[in-house]
Amino acid sequence: MSSRVISGIFDAKEPEFSHSIHDLERLSGRKGHDIRIFVDSIHHFKNLSKQLNLDDEDTTPHELYQSLVVQSKKDSEKLAERLGIKPSDTPAEALKKCIDYLEKRTSWRKFWCVKQSVLKKQLKANPPKKVMKILGFRSIDSLLKREPVLQTLVLAKIIEGVGWQEKHISQAGSMTNSDFDEQKISFSIISPARLSSLKRSDIDLRRIVFSNEESSDIIIVPPNRRFEGDAMFYFDTIINHINGIISRSAFYRFKGLQPDFFETLKDIRENGFKKASFINWPIRWSAVMHSIQHHGNRKLAQRLDLNIPAYELFGLSPEKEMQRFGVWEKGFAYGDKTGLIVSTHLSDAIINAINRNDFENSYSEFGKNRLYDELFSRYLTHHEVIEDVFREDDF
After folding, report:
1. Paired residues of 182 in beta bridges
2. Residues with Cβ < 8 Å from 35, sequence gap 6 or more?
3. Using CA atoms, how far apart are residues 256 and 214, in angstroms rounded to an integer?
4. In whole angstroms, what is the distance from residue 341 CA to residue 54 CA?
5. Helix axes 162-171, 116-125, angle to 10 degrees
6. Whether the Cβ atoms of residue 249 and residue 182 lie closer than 8 Å to each other
7. Is the pTM of this model over 0.85?
8. Each residue of 360-377: pLDDT tens digit?
């Protein structure tokens, strides 16, 4: 039953998923990781219920969900106080205080990303003409001189037509390892004037934080107004983008010396990093990182031979940064035998809180991803699994 519950949480394709679990179980010596993680999730559900002053023997997924939503808003208030965010602050001012804190936490780190000069060269060869028109630039040189590269790429992916998108994807196939180097994370906030000009052209960016799958830049789009829980939402969302940069940097180092690297880059541009980063199905890169970060998997790190200190692979999390949010420490999706799913992940809880989602329409993708990565990261602690997943003939 546990395997079926887990498969249902992931909405996995069957029987392929079950066959993969069977193969991993065989390689790992029948360790029963799928059963153990199912049992662990039940214990986690009960312990979390206790922490939230609920009856651990009688709490329903719906009741736990409501308590997590309330808790996320309470913790947002604690976080705002810790960061010095005042109720009178504008959205831009609140975001700036989050950025200032996180910038200090990452200022000493560098990540393996595509050079800005390379992205500019590609934009020159493939000018985003609709973006240029909306922003009021007659030449691509003027645009690149005055506007952030990431902002231009973000807008181009939203605005430009199929022709531009296809050429942008194909450009990845002509890059070389020399087009990458170490870069620091940088933050920029889109100005009110620029947002106004986009709004006049009916361009609604909708999201607050943007990053690019090849660069170390993060773009911030301040909303029009403050809202309950926004401090935690800002902080957590920016951290998720920082962690994405950390993970992709390690992936590019690993894949960079393999012959299919630039086909992989094309795949990432076309389908996104998550879909393109499967090392050997069903093991994706996020599970590899999770095994190193959460299980201290030295064998796996040595097998990857990333040639960087292990501490550079570790990401950030709101609960670790603030040391006050223990209720979120092991957040992942829980599913019962009836098919009900509740995510105990902070990112899901704060999204549900600010959007006032009811349980039936709740967001749970972060919890599902964490559960997926935790499951497969456990298999990656076994030498036989590592050798099978990272077969020499696959690279």
Report:
1. 112
2. 2, 3
3. 13
4. 18
5. 140
6. no
7. yes
8. 999 999 999 999 999 999
